[in-house]
Specification:
This protein is mainly β and about 500 residues long. It folds into 4 domains: about 90 residues, Immunoglobulin-like; about 90 residues, Immunoglobulin-like (Sandwich), CATH 2.60.40; about 80 residues, Immunoglobulin-like, CATH 2.60.40.10; about 100 residues, Immunoglobulin-like. The protein is built from 2 helices and 35 strands. The N and C termini lie far apart (about 250 Å).
Length: about 500
């Protein structure tokens, strides 16, 4: 029995040996390496997008066991990743601050302790939209051709729609979605829908950086309002003034005459609603006024408003304009001519209308007084001052107003003054040509000669030297010395005769 068991054990060992030999002759099984597989659409691991444009979702998973310890690096800002049912999913859009370029990303994880990786590229573009040839002024619905140029775009890629805004309205600018190349120039005629001065042109698109060459544009309507209430005033001083009620949202105004020559411009491009011109430059009219929104002689001109004929303005006299001309120094007894001029004493255009005012020279005074003489609109006075010294010359002016028929005094006066010096007249005595009459006085009767006798001396003719009446000798007086000498001689003879008698 023991031998039987030994035989069985030996047979069993032989079987194991044979089995082991057979096992050793079989090939050993090989474990396949773990990896990450792209399970999203083919090509999603190499994408081209604009800044702000969402990428097509990218998704990875392991080819064998469960993927663990996942991470993703190298993505542009704004693009994110998550783990979903063991898979890695990449999604999102590149942020606006992302620099254009190719971003290579790497996905890493572990499967059965093995590290697995996958990689791809997201290329980000930052195109710019440049608005060029945008003028500072435009006319509604018919402005000049402007340009919008996209640079840095993606070939064969949709660009979307750019919205241009004018004064609250919008124009859409659509780029060719099938264009090729990295730069597209698109010509677009901006046609703003509404009117508004100094409106900002804005362009918006999530994929574009917008460059504005002309951020502010004045937009004018094609049919500006007609200026209202035009007037034409003749100031009667050689100038005229055109006035009208201004209108909004226009560039300027044109004043035109319809006859000299027909529809000739008098003023082109007036920017205010009041223009004063030389009357000689405007002709005789009639006139009209227009507003415009383009060039002064270009498009966008309003209908014309007829200007009435000139209205003459009554003259208002100004006392400060009253003047006179007189010497500042004269000799006593010398006459001079005083010339005085009152403001508007003569109408400038030779006509007088109701309400006109004028000052006329009325009178003058110093230590004497007088009036003026008018001749052909010139007021003069002959003045002679006899008293030496410093005097004040005063000229008085009277304000008059025309009542439609005649000049009427208003009662208002104005005075102008000037200091005038009167010098003493120079002396010019002449010798007498007549001899003194013989004296009839008797000896000893000297009292018969008195100062009253001098009063009998005839007055000197006009222009002759003044006659001495004082009785005392004067230079050039020859009669009195002879008279005194005769009297002295008679007295001496009388004394001699008296002594002889004794």
């Amino acid at each position: 029995m023991q031998k039987t068991m030994q035989k069985q054990i030996a047979a069993l060992l032989l079987c194991f040996a044979i089995l082991a030999a057979l096992v050793l002759t079989l090939p050993l099984p090989v474990h396949a390496a773990e990896s990450l597989s792209l399970i999203s659409e083919v090509g999603t691991d190499d994408q081209h997008v604009h800044v702000g444009e969402a990428i097509t979702s990218i998704e990875y998973n392991s080819s064998g066991g469960t993927l663990i310890q996942q991470s993703v690096s190298g993505l542009p800002d704004g693009v994110r990743w998550i783990i979903s049912n063991g898979s890695v999913r990449i999604f999102g859009a590149a942020a606006s601050n992302v620099t254009a370029g190719a971003y290579s990303y790497t996905v890493t994880g572990k499967v059965l302790s093995e590290t697995v990786t996958a990689s791809g590229t997201i290329t980000v573009y930052t195109p710019t939209l440049n608005l060029t040839n945008v003028p500072a002024e435009m006319i509604q619905g018919g402005g000049p051709i402007c340009y919008a140029q996209l640079t840095g775009g993606i070939p064969n890629h949709p660009y979307g729609t750019v919205t241009l805004s004018f004064a609250g309205a919008s124009d859409n600018l659509n780029f060719d979605t099938n264009a090729s190349g990295s730069s597209i120039t698109h010509t677009h005629a901006f046609l703003p829908k509404t009117v508004g001065p100094n409106q900002t042109i804005s362009a918006s698109n999530p994929y574009f950086t917008v460059i504005q060459d002309a951020p502010s544009t004045t937009v004018y309507t094609t049919s500006p309002q007609t200026p209202g209430s035009p007037t034409a005033t003749d100031h009667r001083d050689g100038t005229v003034t055109f006035n009208w009620t201004p209108v909004s949202d226009v560039k300027g105004y044109n004043i035109r005459t319809t006859v000299q020559p027909p529809t000739a411009q008098i003023v082109a491009g007036a920017t205010s609603n009041s223009v004063t011109l030389s009357k000689a430059d405007v002709g005789s009219g009639p006139y009209e006024i227009q507003s415009y929104v383009a060039d002064s002689d270009g498009g966008g001109i309003s209908s014309a408003a007829a200007m009435p004929t000139f209205t003459a303005t009554p003259i208002t006299a100004n006392a400060s304009n009253n003047t006179f001309v007189a010497p500042t120094s004269v000799d006593a007894g010398d006459a001079f001519t005083l010339n005085a001029t009152g403001d508007w004493q003569t109408a400038p255009d030779g006509s007088v209308i109701q309400g006109d005012e004028r000052y006329i020279p009325k009178s003058w005074s110093v230590n004497s007084s007088g009036t003026f003489t008018e001749n052909a609109g010139v007021y003069t006075a002959n003045v002679t001052l006899d008293t030496p010294g410093t005097h004040t010359l005063t000229v008085t002016y009277l304000l008059q107003r025309f009542d439609g028929t005649a000049w009427q005094d208003t009662g208002d006066i104005d005075t102008k003054t000037q200091i005038i010096t009167v010098n003493a007249a120079p002396s010019s005595s002449q010798p007498s040509s007549s001899s003194p009459a013989p004296s009839s006085s008797k000896p000893g009767s000297s009292s018969a000669v008195s100062s009253s006798s001098s009063s009998a001396v005839p007055a000197a003719p006009s222009g002759a030297a003044p006659t001495n009446t004082s009785g005392s000798p004067q230079t050039g007086d020859t009669a009195l010395p002879f008279a005194y000498g005769g009297l002295a001689l008679l007295s001496a003879l009388g004394v001699v005769l008296a002594r002889r008698k004794r």
